[in-house]
User: Fold DUF7344 domain-containing protein from Halosimplex pelagicum.
Amino acid sequence: MATTHALDSDRTRDRDRLFRGLAARRRRAALRVLRASNAATVVDLAEAIGTREAAADAETDRDAHTSAVEAALHHRHLPVLVEAGLVDRRDDGSVTLTAEGRTAVEWLDEPMP
Assistant:
């Protein structure tokens, strides 16, 4: 009985990590950028995401916004994605999707019934 409870608890923690990883718009955007490229640096991710976000508001200072996105990715979003098992950070500074990350981003982009 204790083993079943432990397995259920592990599954719950795994699901919590997954949903936390997918909860933020910027984290989902990072997964989509990584799907389009095999690997990216934090700077590459920040430029891609920052450009998309800044395009929605003509008054945004694109460079300042991209710097803010880079800091948020580095300190907040990428650690959550790593903990969720959706991305890996390599020693060379690049970020890649894991198999679980690729599955998650494909699931996100499936049409809703």
The helical segments are 2-23, 25-36, 42-55, 62-83, 99-108.
